[in-house]
Amino acid sequence: QVQLVESGGGLVQPGGSLRLSCAASGSIFSLNSMGWYRQAPGKQRELVAIMHRGGTTNYADSVKGRFTISRGDAKNTVYLQMNSLKPEDTAVYYCYLLTLSSSWGRGTQVTVSS
Known about the structure:
Elements: E1 2-7, E2 10-12, E3 18-26, E4 33-39, E5 46-52, E6 57-59, E7 67-71, E8 77-82, E9 91-98, E10 102-104, E11 108-112
Parallel strand pairs: 2-11
Antiparallel strand pairs: 1-3, 3-8, 4-5, 4-9, 5-6, 7-8, 9-10, 9-11
């Protein structure tokens, strides 16, 4: 059983920054990928950023150049630095981990509004 706990969401003005954190615990074997998805009201969940074993990363086109994914010194942690936030970034952000199966966090709300 894997548990993912996200933190760092909140309300921010357009152009502002937030840093999301995700800590994984439990039975983690052969960690393959760890990253972030988001889901806005009325829309499907979409990939935001993900880091694979070996360090390669993938980003949604809409966040390239603004968001950065990184791993913590404790390898079971992942961060998402979000800069130059836009109202369209408003969503619930979910941490995702892939080992032998997929695991999801409960999500953290990010609201970008003036």
